């Protein structure tokens, strides 16, 4: 049984203790990292993360982007500039630079002009919060776009949206685990990525994982949830192993290149 909350504020969603993909990523690193994350020990958003948040707003909820974001081009080192900055902040707007605003606008336009990406972002709703139980564990996800025809759409910024490069991103950031988690929660038919490059010409690609990749994501998700359940049951959240471990260089180190 799943519950979909269409207009839950982002802060309320993130404060909810259910298991998200972020928690699964932490438990995969170590239970100790997951416990710290659940206890609120989280890094401050980086400039890249803030940029991504603004882009998501511009693409998925353009009316909100127009109302909630403002461009700041002044000089806060001057008395007049500082006063102008504080006055703009007082309106409640999120301030972004002209360069970021122009890049975000161009990226949003690139997605709108891509026939498949634009079509994916119709017939549904953005940022719906989904809650469900898995073997007694409360889980959650927040799809970027949940289509009514059973497709979850996820927007990813990337340096390189080519198939080979984005496949590496999927593996590095465990996007296949995200796909498995979101499909389990929404009970959707498929999970589609819209990958948008962060630099001009802001190329767009649309991907769906093959069956083998999705199965790997499902297996890792199950493993991480089982580990989480065990930690909860015994209230033990270990870090890295407490003994000396053998360490081997990655295969690419033999050539000195990660390619």
SSE layout and pairing:
Blueprint: E1 2-5, H1 10-15, H2 21-29, H3 31-38, H4 47-60, H5 62-68, E2 69-72, H6 79-90, E3 94-97, H7 98-113, H8 115-120, E4 124-126, E5 129-134, E6 137-141, E7 145-147, E8 151-158, H9 163-173, H10 175-186, E9 190-197, E10 204-208, H11 211-234
Parallel strand pairs: 2-3, 8-9
Antiparallel strand pairs: 1-5, 4-7, 5-6, 7-8, 9-10
How would you portray this structure in words?
- The chain has 259 residues and is of the alpha+beta class.
- It has a domain at 116-216: Lambda Exonuclease, Chain A, CATH 3.90.320.10.
- The protein contains eleven helices and ten strands.
- The chain has helices at residues 10-15, 21-29, 31-38, 47-60, 62-68, 79-90, 98-113, 115-120, 163-173, 175-186, 211-234, and strands at residues 2-5, 69-72, 94-97, 124-126, 129-134, 137-141, 145-147, 151-158, 190-197, 204-208.
- It has a five-stranded mixed β-sheet.
- The longest helix has 24 residues, at 211-234.
- The radius of gyration is 20 Å and the shape is globular.
How would you summarize this macromolecular structure in one to three sentences?
With 259 residues, the chain is an alpha+beta fold.
Keywords:
259 residues, alpha+beta, Lambda Exonuclease, Chain A, five-stranded mixed β-sheet, globular
Total count of strands: 10
Mean pLDDT: 94
Could you tell me the radius of gyration in angstroms?
20 Å
- Shape verdict: globular
Low-confidence stretches: none
> CATH architecture of the domain at 116-216, please?
Alpha-Beta Complex
Question: Which oligomerization state do the chains in this entry correspond to?
Answer: single chain
SSE pattern, N- to C-terminal = EHHHHHEHEHHEEEEEHHEEH
Helical content class: 40-55%
Helices, by number, come to: 11
Overall structural class, as computed from helix and strand content, comes to: alpha+beta
Largest sheet: 5 strands, mixed
Share of β-strand residues: 15-25%
What's the level 1 CATH class of the domain at 116-216?
Alpha Beta
Distance between the termini: 44 Å
Widest sheet, order of strands? 4-7-8-9-10
Instruction: Kindly identify the CATH topology of the domain at 116-216.
Output: Lambda Exonuclease, Chain A
């Amino acid at each position: 049984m799943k519950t979909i909350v269409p207009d839950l504020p982002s802060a309320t969603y993130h404060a909810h203790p259910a298991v998200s993909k972020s928690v699964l990523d932490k438990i995969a690193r170590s239970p100790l990292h997951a416990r710290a994350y659940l206890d609120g020990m989280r890094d401050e958003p980086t400039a890249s993360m803030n940029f991504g948040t603004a882009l998501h707003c511009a693409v998925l909820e353009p009316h909100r982007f127009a109302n909630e974001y403002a461009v700041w081009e002044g000089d806060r080192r001057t008395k007049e500039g500082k006063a102008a900055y504080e006055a703009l902040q007082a309106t409640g707007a999120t301030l972004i630079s002209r360069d970021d605003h122009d890049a975000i606008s161009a990226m949003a336009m690139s997605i709108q002009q891509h026939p498949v990406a634009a079509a994916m972002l119709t017939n549904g709703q953005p940022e719906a919060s989904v809650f469900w139980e898995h073997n007694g564990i409360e889980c959650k996800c927040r799809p970027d776009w949940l289509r009514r025809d059973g497709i979850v759409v996820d927007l990813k910024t990337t340096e390189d949206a080519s198939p080979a490069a984005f496949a590496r991103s999927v593996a590095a950031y465990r996007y296949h685990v995200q796909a498995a988690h979101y499909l389990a929660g929404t009970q959707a038919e498929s999970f589609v990525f819209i990958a948008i490059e962060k630099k001009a010409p802001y190329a767009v690609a649309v991907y769906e994982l093959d069956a083998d990749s999705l199965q790997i994501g499902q297996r890792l998700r199950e493993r991480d949830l089982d580990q989480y359940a065990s930690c909860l049951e015994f209230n033990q959240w270990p870090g890295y192993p407490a003994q000396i471990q053998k360490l081997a260089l990655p295969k690419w180190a033999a050539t000195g290149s990660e390619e």
